[in-house]
Amino acid sequence: MPFDQLLGNRRIKENLTGALARRHIAHFYLISGPKGSGKHTLARLLAAGILCQGQEKPCGVCSACRKALNNAHPDFITVDDPDKKHVPIDLIRQTTADMYVRPNEANHKIYLFPRGEDMGIPTQNALLKILEEPPSYGVFIILTTNSDKLLPTVRSRCTELAMTALPEEQLKNALHSQFPQASPQQIAGAIARSGGYLGQAQEILQEAEGATKNTEDFLHAYARQDAFALLKVLCPMEKWKRDALIGELEQWVLVLTDALTARSGMTATLPLADLVASSRSRKDLMRAIEVLQKTINYARGNVSPAAISGYLQWALR
Ligand SMILES: [Zn+2]
Q1: CA of 312 relative to ligand 1 center, distance in Å
Q2: 2-164: which CATH topology?
Q3: Can you give the residue ranges of every domain in the chain?
Q4: What pTM was estimated for this model as a whole?
Q5: Ligand 1 center to 50 CA (angstroms)
Q6: Ligand 1 centroid to 204 CA: how many Å?
Q7: What's the CA-to-centroid distance between 5 and ligand 1, angstroms?
Q8: Consecutive H or E run containing 161
């Protein structure tokens, strides 16, 4: 059942399954919910359900479903310019013209507006013209992280589908299978920070995976005293977000402190701490820890990641 691709949100899935079976298709849908709550997944499933040529809609296997689910159906059109901060009004005007051209191969023509929260008032007024007299085959799906940013006249014309947070158990199961390498603590941490939205938890764990690789690269470069490898780790960090940068530097301090412990004859507990302990002196380690701690304080005090990265390139060379 393709609707299973979207976790949770049982009521929305049941309602849409019933409506699609009866071919009750609205002209306007508003899918609202925070980042990572599954709005895009639901929009693709809804489009597939409308365009589907199979029995149970969406069947997930007919060619219309497969194209819609892959964002490759000629009658499922995304209206956006991701390079622009706001959705340009010209795009809405082009859509108005395009919508009177009959569908290519389906009985419907579906337009997806992925950034409802970034539509200014003039853009929304242009959209209203469409909402006032849509062609019979036209379906319009607006996604938004904030329904309040839409004009009441736009919102009132739409069937609103509000995404809901997932129960912790369901999130945990999904994340364990998607991130088999992540520790139970990492998964619990991601769930706590995700607000119950799978996409946000996935992003946190993906960042953690990237950070783990980055930490490994740093420790290898630092242990080998390889200045070039160290630059390769530090340079890209000038573009990191401050929180991620602080988290990463704290991780380095933990491992170097562990290596320092190992140098005084205790057992190291963190990966690669032994390698660092065997190649750098006590004095080196104490100095690096001091530099890193100073840098973490700078970062907390609003020094930019670019300046932090530059300072570390000099201080850890
Ligand atoms: Zn189908």
Answers
A1: 55
A2: Rossmann fold (3.40.50)
A3: 2-164, 169-315
A4: 0.75
A5: 9
A6: 33
A7: 14
A8: strand 159-162
